[in-house]
Design a protein that fits this description.
Elements: H1 2-18, E1 30-36, E2 42-46, E3 50-53, E4 62-65, E5 74-78, E6 81-85, E7 90-94, E8 96-99, E9 103-107, E10 115-120, E11 129-130, E12 135-139, E13 141-148, E14 157-162, E15 169-174, E16 183-187, E17 191-196, E18 203-207, E19 211-216, H2 221-229, E20 231-233, E21 237-242, E22 253-258, E23 264-267, E24 273-278, E25 286-290, E26 293-298, E27 306-311, E28 314-321, E29 327-332, E30 334-349, E31 352-365, E32 370-376, E33 382-385, E34 387-389, E35 398-400, E36 406-408, E37 413-416, E38 421-424, E39 430-432, E40 435-438, E41 441-446, E42 458-461, E43 464-469, H3 475-484, E44 487-488, E45 492-498, E46 504-509, E47 525-527, H4 539-542, E48 544-551, E49 557-564, E50 569-575, E51 579-584, E52 588-595, E53 607-611, E54 615-618, E55 622-626, E56 631-634, E57 639-642, E58 646-650, E59 657-660, E60 663-676, E61 678-681, E62 686-697, E63 712-714, E64 719-732, E65 753-754, E66 764-769, E67 772-777, E68 782-783, E69 786-791, E70 801-802, E71 806-810, E72 819-824, E73 896-900, E74 906-910, E75 914-915, E76 920-927, ...
Parallel strand pairs: 6-9, 7-10, 8-11, 9-12, 10-13, 12-14, 13-15, 14-16, 15-17, 16-18, 17-19, 18-20, 19-21, 23-25, 24-28, 27-29, 28-30, 29-30, 30-31, 31-32, 33-36, 34-37, 35-38, 36-39, 37-40, 38-41, 40-42, 41-43, 42-44, 43-45, 47-50, 49-51, 50-52, 51-53, 52-54, 53-56, 54-57, 55-58, 56-59, 57-60, ...
Antiparallel strand pairs: 1-2, 1-8, 3-4, 3-5, 5-6, 21-22, 22-23, 25-26, 26-27, 32-33, 45-46, 48-49, 64-67, 64-69, 66-67, 67-68, 70-71, 71-72, 73-75, 74-76, 76-79, 77-80, 78-79
């Protein structure tokens, strides 16, 4: 009912607003403006009426009219606005205008031109314009003239210009009196011209104006100076004060540029383009109008450098301080000059500067402001400060050589645009302490083999790096060189060289130095659109195989699997219009990816799935535009980078779904990064989007009333991150009426973008926007663009973030606006800033007596809720309520509990039972006799693993987060003969040349050797650091079972009956320990990952259920969905442990030493 009443009120208000002349004021309401004619008759203007402007011959003033006068100038008033209608934009009001309140005067809103408005009168009843201390705002009034004869033209108040198409002019003139009888303020005028008897005005306050001209009727220079003393300005202005002409003499004048300190400078010619020289002919301090700002030049003297001050200067050209030995450059405000040239240059000030400095003899930087500049000193030697592009100082590209070195300073960023280039002839000529962002081409000439790692600093390669070696460099050496460059980004590396026969050879590498395989075919294009038979012949040469092909009764392909090896490199891949899975085994690259078929109308039944642990980069758009029911899925554990974005579905209404359970990173230079029907991010999914436009959704092919339901969703631990300049998520419809409605018939945006309440970022909500639903930035009342993260499980920073009046802990994900633990600042006695976040202490802030930031956590008013933040469960000083203050003056910082879980066969103690955030806590672990520590983990309340540092002697330390922690330890029995091994000649490890009896893997390898589970290689090596293969692990488990013979038909084509591992593979397949990649492929020589090893042991153990349903490691999201239960079981039972940095590395290759330790842990438990 409440919504219905509000709707009726809104409708009534709308109807009223449509009545002529009402606006918000009722007809007949008197306004704050009165017009008095020359005969003294006054008319106070009322809302909803028309007033014809009378000419001076008929006595001036205005006359009320029933309708708008035709062919005559007239006025209307409504809600504080006086609107002026006149012929060709020129309006003359003969009479006196008096204000009783603030008033806006607006030009005809239907006219194309600005209005020229003149007020003039005769008589002795006071000023022509009587402001009475109020403000007159002029909108679309380009020229405003106020004239009088024997009376002041204006009294005290404010005249403000706004919304102009060009520069505005105000002209105030009194023939025989002060021009202004009070204090006058003028704002935003291009020219202020005031003429009258001295003292002309009581005071003149000029804000955001460019030029002031004053003409007092006097020839006395003292009186001219007194006029200047009454002018206050907020920025430099061009000032002219002219005295009266005297017969036979020059007029007296003061002319120049006035600065805010009252100083008058000589005024030079303004300039805004080309090349301007300030040379020895300038002998007095001179000001120059430069774009929207000023340049102030003071010539030097013997022993004193010349000084140039730039204040808001904008100049597209070269400013050359010619014939000055040394120049001190002071920067104020925001300045942009294409190039500034001086012999010797010293930088001072605290403003900002964008441009190029060229100095012949010296360059000294004492500047404390923001510098986005390239410094050329000495000649052809360039240094980059701040953010610059190569196109700013070299159209043809930048050359780095011994003669032309390039330095990027600390914190600076040099961007190489799409068609830009940097050519490095000498590796030592580039010094990069900042960042190079390459969107074009970086060319490197290698004239000798590189020695060691190149010092190229941080290079984000989103374009291309081309290396031209002129000496013989092997592929391994080139890979090491590229890897040492430390490249990141989405681009590629190409090596162009010549073989012994003089033939050009091209090699392709990833940014990480991985050499890509030879591309398929002769042109790098792989066409599988009609591949109805399996093909594994190219696996070893081009790194792909096409398997699991299935067809319907008509012979049409219905499904298939494309497996690509590490280093796979194709210009394009065309798939059949079917259910296709791409399994990526290692880092690979595809140019364009699209299905064929559809009879010219595009794919109709494509179900594309990405799987496997390798990172697949697709450089062009993934195009699945066609029918209504196509789909794209990223499986858990898969990692896909789509640099050209994704377009999927029907061209008339993009009606297909994208499901993300792994990691999908999509970017695009223009248009929507993702264009689909709907997007669903699952429990393990991460979708990252960046570009101009973000995710554009157009509905699904359902019933009309369900077409737009639940088009964007995030569930579980899924995460969506975006950074797009126009919008991050948009749902488009032909008509907004198509969107779902709530129970009261209103459009329900949250039924379209469907997120649980605790996933929504701060100041973000879905809103109807025309025929679309956009994510809306409620804080800035606009479409939400820029960094944004949508997720549930926040990771809170240990550091405080200054929030103005308070401070808080922010979520560490970029774009996430969630905060927790909001608390007041803490000011210690005698301090100048907050102890916790360094917020400057206000002069009137008292000493804090609450002991510091109490960190209220999720229970406080500003916390996001739940158990994610510090301070819940009565951790904070306010208890569960999350109270943020109070307490006696001796209360210290908030403390949080350190809980140690009960365990058997040992004990754990902590140096603190409670500790404040940032405190280092020491754990002492003491196993019982005959036992050893097999696992030790510390987790915070959200389940995040805290990094432990081993301190020796059974002690471990960690830094306390801002919240409670749990400590869990496990102890395992020490098996006789391994841990107590004397490690002498009796140790079986000693028989291998590459194994160390004192290494961490001693116990595991000793166990496996002594129990016949593992052997070494024929060359006397054990290979502890070598990756273990699938066949080797199966053979170990087969050995454990006593090598039984199994009557089982094995169909793996790559494991012939004569293979050394054949019986082991047969046994493992029969028991379900392994299943192979497909019905005929096992991959015996393929290296096994840590998660695959856990899965095999888990299956061998009978696939037991894990008690703990969480995987408490920082990289748990990297684990494949098929392996999660096995990994949880392996960690819980001490079969597998993580690394000291809190990571499990599920996708890392398992070495033989790691496998031996895991086997020992598993078989002895």
């Amino acid at each position: 009912m409440k919504h219905r009443i509000l709707s009726m009120i809104t409708a009534l208000a709308l109807c009223l607003s449509l009545l002529p002349g009402t606006a918000w004021a009722a007809e007949g309401d008197a306004g704050p403006v009165t017009i008095t004619d020359n005969a003294g008759q006054s008319v106070t203007l009322e809302a909803g009426k028309y007033y014809q402007i009378n000419d001076g011959a008929s006595g001036g003033g205005v006359t009320e009219q029933t309708d708008a006068p035709v062919g005559k100038a007239y006025l209307t008033y409504a809600d504080g606005v006086l609107t002026v209608f006149g012929s060709r934009g020129y309006v003359y009001i003969c009479g006196k205008m008096t204000l009783s309140g603030d008033l806006k005067v607006a030009g005809d809103p239907t006219a194309q031109n600005n209005v020229n408005l003149t007020l003039t009168r005769t008589g002795d009843s006071g000023p022509t314009l009587s402001l009475n201390g109020h403000t007159l705002t002029l909108e679309k009034v380009v020229y405003f003239e106020v004239l009088s004869d024997d009376q002041p033209a204006v009294d005290g108040g404010t005249i403000r210009f706004t919304k102009l198409f060009g520069n505005s002019i105000i002209f105030i003139n009194s023939e025989n009196a002060n021009a202004v009888s009070g204090d006058l303020a003028v704002e935003n005028a291009g020219l202020v011209n005031i003429n009258g008897k001295p003292p002309v005005f009581q005071s003149l306050d000029v804000k955001e104006c460019n030029q002031v001209q004053i003409s007092p009727d006097s020839n006395n220079t003292t009186e001219l100076s007194s006029v200047i003393d009454k002018i206050t300005i907020d920025r430099p202005i061009s000032l002219s004060v002219f005295g009266k002409y005297v017969d036979g003499a020059e007029p007296i004048k003061i002319e120049g540029v006035m600065t805010t300190d009252g100083k008058i400078w000589a005024e030079g010619w303004g300039f805004d383009s080309g090349t301007h020289f300030i040379d020895s002919s300038v002998t007095t301090p001179t000001a120059y109008w430069v774009g929207d700002g000023w340049a102030f030049y003071t010539p030097g003297a013997e022993g004193t450098p010349a000084k140039l001050t730039l204040d808001g200067a904008s100049y597209e050209g070269t400013l050359n301080i010619h014939q000055a030995d040394s120049v001190q450059l002071e920067l104020k405000g925001e300045n942009a000059v294409t190039q500034l040239v001086a012999a010797a240059l010293t930088l001072t000030g605290s403003g900002s500067f964008t441009g190029i400095f060229s100095s012949e003899t010296s360059f000294t930087n004492n500047f404390t402001g923001t510098l986005n500049a390239v410094v050329e000193y000495p000649a052809r030697t360039y240094t980059v400060y701040g953010d610059r592009s190569t196109s700013d100082f070299s159209v043809r590209g930048v050359m780095c050589s011994e003669r032309t070195p390039l330095t990027i300073t600390n914190g600076a960023t040099l961007t190489v645009p799409e068609r830009g280039s940097v050519t490095i002839i000498d590796l030592e000529s580039l010094t990069n302490h900042g960042t190079i962002v390459n969107g074009g081409d970086i060319q490197i000439l290698l004239e000798e083999k590189p020695q060691g790692t190149p010092n190229f600093g941080t290079i984000v390669n989103n374009g291309g790096v081309t290396i031209y070696p002129t000496v013989d460099i092997t592929g391994e050496e080139m890979s090491a060189f590229i890897k040492g460059m430390g490249l990141s980004g989405t681009g590629t590396v190409t090596v162009e060289k010549t073989d012994a026969g003089g033939n050009k050879v091209t090699e392709n590498y990833t940014n990480g130095g991985l050499k890509l395989l030879d591309p398929p075919g002769t042109d790098g294009k792989l066409d599988l659109s009609n591949a109805d038979t399996e093909d594994t012949s190219n696996w070893n040469t081009q790194g792909y195989k096409w398997t699991d092909v299935k067809k319907d009764a008509d012979g049409n392909i219905t499904s298939g699997t494309l497996t690509i090896a590490e280093g796979f490199n194709a210009t394009s891949v065309t798939l059949p219009d079917a259910a296709v899975t791409i399994v990526t085994e290692g880092e690979s690259c595809i140019g364009g990816l699209a299905p064929g078929g559809g009879g010219g109308s595009g794919p109709q039944k494509t179900e594309l799935t990405f799987a496997g642990p390798g990172v697949l980069t697709i450089t062009e758009q993934v195009n699945i535009a066609g029918g209504d029911y196509n789909s794209l899925t990223v499986d858990a554990g898969a990692n896909v980078i789509a640099n050209g974005g994704i377009y999927i579905g029907a061209s008339g209404g993009v009606n297909s779904i994208i499901t993300v359970n792994g990691t999908l990173t999509a970017t695009a230079g223009f248009g929507a990064v993702i264009h689909a029907g709907s997007v669903a991010i699952g429990d393990t999914g991460v979708l990252n989007v960046s570009g101009t436009d973000g995710v554009l959704l157009s509905g699904m092919p359902r019933n009309d009333d369900e077409k737009y339901n639940n088009l964007f969703s995030v569930t579980g631990n899924g995460r969506f991150s975006a950074d797009c300049s126009n919008y991050n998520i948009k749902v488009d419809a032909t008509n907004a009426d198509e969107f779902p409605k709530d129970s009261e018939g209103h459009t329900d945006p949250r039924a379209v973008i469907s997120l649980p309440a605790d996933y929504w970022p701060e100041n973000c909500e879905p809103r109807v926007n025309g025929n679309a639903i956009d994510l809306w930035d409620t804080a800035n009342n606009k479409v939400y663009s820029g960094p944004l993260t949508i997720h549930k499980n926040h990771i809170w920073s240990n550091d405080w973030t200054d929030g103005g009046d308070t401070h808080y802990h922010a979520c560490t994900f970029e774009g996430c606006t969630a905060k927790t633990g909001t608390a007041p600042h803490y000011y210690a006695h005698g301090s100048t800033a907050c102890r916790d976040c360094n917020h400057p202490r206000p002069d009137d802030a008292p000493d804090s007596d609450g002991g510091g930031s109490p960190d209220p956590g999720p229970g406080g008013d500003d916390g996001p809720g739940g158990d994610d933040g510090p301070g819940g469960d009565n951790d904070g000083p306010g208890g569960g309520s999350g109270s943020s203050g109070g307490g006696s003056s001796d209360r210290g910082p908030s403390t949080y509990s350190v809980s140690i879980e009960k365990t058997e066969h040992g004990k754990v103690s902590a140096s603190h039972s409670r500790a404040s955030g940032g405190t280092r806590v020491t754990l002492t672990v003491t196993p019982d006799e005959g036992y050893d520590t097999s696992a030790l983990t510390v987790t915070d309340k959200s389940g995040k693993t805290i990094v432990l540092t081993e301190a020796g002697g059974g002690k471990y330390t960690f830094v306390m987060p801002f919240g409670s922690v749990s400590v869990r330890a496990k102890f395992g029995r020490i098996a006789d003969g391994y841990e107590d091994c004397p490690q002498d000649s009796t140790c079986p490890i000693r028989s291998f040349t590459d194994a160390n009896t004192t290494a961490w893997y001693h116990d595991g390898v000793h166990y496996c050797l002594e129990n016949g589970l593992m052997n070494g290689f024929g060359d006397g090596a054990f290979g502890p650091g070598k990756p273990i293969t699938r066949a080797q692990l199966v053979q170990i488990l087969h050995n454990r079972e006593g090598r039984p013979s199994i009557n089982y038909q094995m169909q793996f084509a790559d494991v012939p009956g004569s293979a050394w591992c054949a019986e082991a593979v047969r046994w493992a397949a029969s028991k379900g320990v392994v299943s192979g990649y497909s019905s005929d492929t096992f991959g015996p020589g393929d290296h096994i990952t840590r998660e695959q090893l856990a899965v095999m042991l888990w299956r061998y153990a009978g696939s037991p259920a894990a008690t703990d349903k969480e995987l408490h490691f920082t990289d748990a999201d990297k684990a494949g969905g098929y392996a999660l239960e096995a990994l949880r079981w392996a960690v819980e039972n001490g079969v597998m442990g993580g690394y000291g940095d809190g990571q499990l590395a599920p996708q890392g290759l398992a070495t033989r030493a790691q496998a031996a330790q895991m086997l020992k842990n598993f078989l002895e438990k």
